[in-house]
Design goal:
Elements: E1 2-8, H1 34-47, E2 57-59, E3 61-62, E4 65-66, E5 72-75, E6 80-88, E7 95-99, E8 112-114, E9 131-133, E10 145-147, H2 148-156, E11 169-170, E12 176-186, E13 193-206, E14 210-217, H3 232-236, E15 241-245, E16 252-258, E17 276-278, E18 281-288, E19 300-301, E20 307-308, E21 324-325, E22 330-331, E23 343-345, E24 349-352, E25 359-362, E26 366-368, E27 371-377, E28 382-384, E29 387-388, E30 399-400, E31 404-406, E32 412-417, H4 420-430, E33 458-462
Antiparallel strand pairs: 1-14, 1-16, 2-5, 3-4, 6-7, 6-14, 7-10, 8-9, 10-11, 12-13, 15-16, 17-18, 18-32, 18-33, 19-20, 21-22, 23-26, 24-25, 27-32, 28-31, 29-30
Length: 472
């Protein structure tokens, strides 16, 4: 994947679905969601004109089920992005920052831990352990962002060093300011002022020495550039840089390609082994680097004839088993509640088109992962929405997109594995880089929706029970 830095040439406007009218100033100064940057690159590819006219077109649909007689009217379906993340360019070596883990404070170590007490978890089954603080209460608010080095130290040693001259923990105000301004609404049809549409808005201004870090790739099987090969993104940036419109109101950023770090990506690397063991279980935790969306899934039969079990989604990943009654919204006791349904695909991955629907398979088979979810820390959800223009395929009228509630970055999920091998397999299935130690691509995106847009990236660490306790 290409490592890209976006330098704003003006203030930026990233609004959510909340209105901007009357006394409401809207929320246009929030840090952009992954969808915003993905849409910016997708639009830039379309605006590039004839340079990509030979790119592979594709159909609307998935899993081998396509509508409108398989009409190929969609383009750039191979685009995959991650980010954005704040990047400090004050030094020769840029420093990337990521959302703080929800179980840690500014000491750089985990201060929240599962407690095997008689008190139940505040989350419904399958969680059986409440997560409690190992420190006395305080009024301080931890910093929102950790540097790449702080994250790597937290995942491996639980001790975060403080290098001289650099901050490893920062807040939003350390790299961005909020500016307030007023405006008038314009009728897009007439180009005149809309009556009663005087509004106030917030804008995001990055401070000097800060940029937005993004990872992006788009390998097209029919496109070939004499210098950049099948890489649409690198061709778009012409090997060095270009202008990208990001967010609302046509705000422009200058996108520049950055060299890779020792052949890898500037994302924290999760543990692949060395997990703590207690009473016959290996303890693995998974921390989100980007938001994840797990929708409610109604039960019934799929188009391919398979039986689909109902799942509540929400804070609970769809790949964690739960015996759930959708009509009564109740959980039935079941020993399989909390079981991880993922399988580790080994060897080269490919798509199998021989069945009623397309499946992802592996040349070297799959391995079961005998692991259960036992606790979680889930902060307040993030609304994810947007606006779609009208098109002839699936939105003849256009309008607002469906609103999803995403689990925010920093959320922590605790697992108990039945063996050391299961713990390693779980880490390989959940780490964004799998089991690679010098990854050059993102292997796992564990969000049910919008994984290609950068949702569902996470890394694995290990955990211990509350000091002085152990499960009965």
């Amino acid at each position: 994947m290409n490592t890209i830095l976006l330098r704003p040439t003006d203030i930026l406007f990233f609004r959510d679905g909340r209105p901007m009218s009357g006394a409401s100033a809207g929320h246009g100064a929030a840090w952009p969601l992954p969808t915003v940057i993905n849409h910016a690159f997708h639009a830039a590819l379309h605006r590039a004109g004839d340079i990509f006219q030979n790119a592979h077109p594709h159909c609307l649909g998935r899993n081998g089920i396509y509508g409108d007689a398989g009409r190929r009217d969609r383009r750039f379906g191979s685009l995959a992005t991650a980010g954005p993340f704040p990047v400090s360019t004050a030094n020769a070596d840029p420093t990337w920052y990521f959302p703080r883990p929800a179980d840690a404070d500014d000491s750089g170590s985990a201060v929240l831990a599962p407690h095997p007490s008689a008190a139940p978890s505040s989350l419904v089954a399958p969680c059986k352990y409440p997560v409690t603080s190992t420190r006395p209460p305080s009024k301080g608010t931890p910093k929102s962002w950790w540097s790449l080095g702080a994250w790597n130290s937290y995942l491996r040693t639980a001790q975060v060093p403080q290098p001289p001259g650099r901050s490893v923990f920062i807040s939003d105000g350390d790299f961005a300011d909020t500016e307030h301004t007023y405006g008038i609404g314009i009728n897009p049809d007439t180009g005149t002022v809309e009556e009663g549409q005087f509004y106030s808005a917030n804008y995001l201004r990055l401070r000097d020495g800060w940029q937005l870090g993004v990872l992006a790739s788009a390998a097209d099987k029919k496109f070939h550039h004499p210098v950049h090969g099948d890489d649409l993104v690198r061709t778009l940036l012409n090997g060095h840089g270009a202008e990208i419109i990001a967010g609302g109101q046509q705000r422009v950023c200058t996108a520049t390609l950055e060299p890779s770090r020792n052949g890898g990506l500037p994302l924290p690397l999760g543990r692949t082994d060395g997990f703590h063991q207690q009473d016959g279980h290996w303890l693995v935790k998974w921390v989100l680097l980007s938001p994840a969306i797990w929708p409610e899934i109604p039960g019934g039969a799929s188009r391919g004839g398979e039986t689909i079990h109902a799942h509540p989604g929400g804070w609970l990943p769809n790949w964690v088993s739960l015996d759930w009654d959708a009509e009564t919204a109740t959980v039935h006791p079941n020993k399989d509640n909390g079981r991880v349904l993922l399988k580790l695909r080994m060897g080269n991955r490919r798509r199998d088109y021989t069945g009623p629907r397309v499946k992802r398979v592996s040349d070297e088979g799959e391995a079961e992962i005998r692991t259960h979810l036992v606790a979680a820390i889930v902060p307040k959800p993030i609304p994810v929405t947007g606006w779609a223009l009208a098109n002839d395929s699936d939105r003849p009228q256009g309008g607002a997109k469906s609103t999803h509630l995403a689990v925010p970055a920093g959320a922590v999920y605790y697992f108990e594995a039945e063996s050391e091998t299961d713990a390693k397999n779980l880490a390989a299935a959940l780490n964004w880089h799998g089991s690679d130690t010098q990854p050059t691509t993102i292997r796992n995106r564990r969000s049910t929706l919008m994984g290609e847009k950068g949702f569902g990236l996470g890394v694995c660490g290990t955990w211990d029970f509350f000091p002085g306790t152990r499960p009965q």
